Amino acid sequence: VQLQASGGGLVQAGGSLRLSCAASGSTFSTYHMGWFRQAPGKEREFVANISWRSGLSTYYADSVKGRFTISRDNAKNTVYLQMNSLKPEDTAVYYCAAARAFSSAATSYQYWGRGTLVTVSS
Question: Which pLDDT band holds residue 62 (cuts at 50, 70, 90)?
């Protein structure tokens, strides 16, 4: 599975962005998908994940719960991250990843995209 994230950019605090992650390969629908982020000088952290069967299970980090929404369209081989009420502390490079296990641990993910930068100005 090859992954390509897009949709990042510069946004003011309180604004919104939608990230997309396009996957190649016919097995996309069999993978759980996750979003992670890494801020400058910090470790990569879990943001959200969604089970392989669209909408069956989702899980969010406490820091984004109620503001971010993960979704997927298996027909389009794409997973999305809708980010609302953005805060400066959301500034990071955002990565999408694919896993066989439904997990928030980065080590559980076998495939990673290259990342897209989100910058939130105050």
Answer: very high
Confidence of residue 118 (pLDDT cuts 50, 70, 90): very high
Asked if residues 57 and 51 have their Cβ atoms less than 8 Å apart, the reply is yes
3-state helix/strand/coil string of the chain:
CEEEEECCEEEECCCCEEEEEEEECCCHHHCEEEEEEECCCCCCEEEEEECCCCCCCEEECCCCCCCEEEEEEHHHCEEEEEECCCCHHHCEEEEEEEECCCCCCHHHEEEECCCEEEEEEC
Q: What are the φ and ψ backbone dihedral angles of 17, each rounded to 5 degrees?
A: -145, 155
CA gap 35, 2 in Å, rounded: 15
CA distance 12 to 48: 22
| Mean of per-residue pLDDT scores for the chain | 95
Distances (CA, A) of 22 to 64, 100, 112: 22, 17, 11
- Rounded distance, CA 119 to CA 122, Å? 10
